[in-house]
Specification:
Blueprint lengths: L3 H29 L1 E4 L14 H13 L24 E6 L3 H5 L4 E3 L13 E5 L2 E6 L4 E2 L6 E7 L4 E5 L5 E6 L13 E6 L1 E5 L5 E6 L3
Parallel strand pairs: 1-12, 2-5
Antiparallel strand pairs: 2-7, 3-4, 4-5, 6-7, 7-12, 8-11, 9-10
């Protein structure tokens, strides 16, 4: 008979493990990627809210370095209210900036894509050649006021990650009574892992830094 509590804990540990690895890669990208500051907004900060002009500058950076798109063009259909989606790079944005990106003149919500099958769970929409994924784990620098958000824009093959050995991700479960537990009172669960990550080409990844509008 399965232990329901143990199953729930194992599921939470698996989510924690994946989230931790994602944060390691995110922090590597923030520390090493090229940066472009948003300067064309109207909020009065030294680094402004994102604008279409700023986003185009980030796209220009990838285009000028021959970055390859990550997703193909989606042709329009005869479904009412939908629109074609351009072949696109991908950008990771903070959930804090949903309104800022929705206010861009070229924003297209995922609800208006011609094919819903290709929409990622966390995908928010697109702005011409950029498809947007939002997450609460996106990096923001809170050591400055106002906080500065790092919106990471990628071309194909911009970065890579490797496992250090064949046990780089290991879930460790000790059943009840394991070790020095003669009364069968304790059970332990945890994980350990090793990871390496690096930008493969500096010209195919850029952090567009913005503040909240």
């Amino acid at each position: 008979m399965q232990d329901q509590t143990a199953n729930e804990v194992a599921d939470m540990l698996a989510q924690n493990m994946a989230s931790t690895y994602d944060k390691i890669v995110r922090n590597m990208l923030v520390a090493t990627a090229a940066q472009i500051d948003c300067l064309n907004g109207v909020n009065g900060n030294a680094i402004t809210e994102v604008t279409t002009t700023d986003l185009e500058l980030a796209v220009d950076y990838l285009e000028g370095n021959n970055g390859k798109k990550l997703s193909p063009n989606q042709e329009g259909t005869n479904a009412f209210g939908t629109a074609p989606v351009w072949a696109s790079y991908w950008m990771i944005i903070s959930t804090d900036l949903r309104s800022d990106f929705k206010n861009l003149s070229n924003f297209l919500p995922t609800a208006d894509y011609p094919r819903q099958q290709s929409v990622l769970e966390a995908e928010f929409g697109s702005c011409d050649e950029v498809r947007l994924v939002k997450t609460s784990e996106a990096y923001k620098d809170v050591s400055v006021v106002p906080a500065v958000y790092y919106n990471l824009l990628f071309a194909a093959n911009a970065y890579g990650r490797i496992t250090i050995d064949d046990q780089s991700m290991e879930m460790i479960i000790k059943p009840l009574g394991a070790g020095q537990d003669p009364l069968n009172q304790r059970q332990t669960m945890g994980w350990k892992g090793r990871l390496g990550s690096v930008i493969l080409d500096d010209s195919w990844c850029v952090a567009l830094r913005s503040t909240k509008g």
